[in-house]
Amino acid sequence: METPFPPFEPNGPDDSARGPRLREIPFRLVFPNLITILAICAGLTGIRLAFENRYELAVAMVLLAAFLDGIDGRVARLMKATSKFGAQMDSLADIVNFGVAPALVVYVFALDQARSLGWIAALIYAIAAGLRLARFNVMAERENKASWQSEYFVGVPAPAGAMLVLLPVYLGFLGLATDRTFAYLSSIYTVAIAFLLISRLPVWSGKSEGNRLRRDLVLPMMLGVVLYVALLMSYTWEVMVFTVAAYLVSLPFGARRWRRKYGTLTIEEPGVGDDDIGRHI
């Protein structure tokens, strides 16, 4: 049916007023974003399961969210599907999966018995994770990056922080009594992990291209990975406790290596200066 009063266009139809035309988007550009969305769904589902007292599934979902959140960027680079939209989605997923979800799961499982102190500890961790991620994003946007950024993190990275902060939950699964004393100790531990996130401690990343593995160690390393995964599937919480302990023990060795190379115990190069805060908040 024709419009009774057609629009007045003396110079002909104006296509610009119709907005941008829709065009088909290759699936490879969408696939990494789908992984990010699945990661957010897993993290939020972990929170729900924790409030339903289904703690083992809750922790599994949080760890799955951390895994998915860790691979979406790599998948995007492999598929040549990186985009600004995907980067923003990934940042939003990071704060949910590495900050909010672990904090709420550990709070519901253990910290709530410490009352307000437990909630404060959970808040401190979640905020520290947000600050850690903001600092990482600011440093990643710099045009001139320092050479050490390919080899070291400034502070414990957020994915590792999510794994570390869940230690009280792992210990509870192994039969440790989750009484009020345990809640207070867990609160102190949670705050300590929060400070490791925002610290200037040099943490070895293992991403440097100069790190090469000797040919005779390739097969033993592959067998070691298979053994670790097999033990993780059979003795999940024991292996997670061991992994957390091994990671924490490795931190002083990374700082020692940095000191031998650069002469300081912490990374003195400013990660977020006044100008960065003014531009990015």
TrEMBL record:
Question: Which coarse location class describes where this protein primarily resides?
Answer: membrane
Q: Gene3D superfamilies attached here?
A: 1.20.120.1760
Q: Which UniProt keywords apply?
A: Lipid biosynthesis, Lipid metabolism, Membrane, Phospholipid biosynthesis, Phospholipid metabolism, Transferase, Transmembrane, Transmembrane helix
The Gene Ontology CC terms held by the record are:
endomembrane system; membrane
How is it placed in the membrane, per its record?
A: Multi-pass membrane protein
EC class of the enzyme, as a word: transferase
What PROSITE patterns does this protein's entry cite?
CDP_ALCOHOL_P_TRANSF
The chemistry this enzyme catalyses reads:
a CDP-1,2-diacyl-sn-glycerol + L-serine = a 1,2-diacyl-sn-glycero-3-phospho-L-serine + CMP + H(+)
List GO molecular-function terms, semicolon-separated.
CDP-diacylglycerol-serine O-phosphatidyltransferase activity
Subcellular location field: Endomembrane system
Per UniProt, residues of the CDP-alcohol phosphatidyltransferase C-terminal domain are 217-252
Q: Which family does it belong to?
A: Belongs to the CDP-alcohol phosphatidyltransferase class-I family.
Name of the protein in its database record:
CDP-diacylglycerol--serine O-phosphatidyltransferase
Organism, by scientific name, is Rhizobium aethiopicum
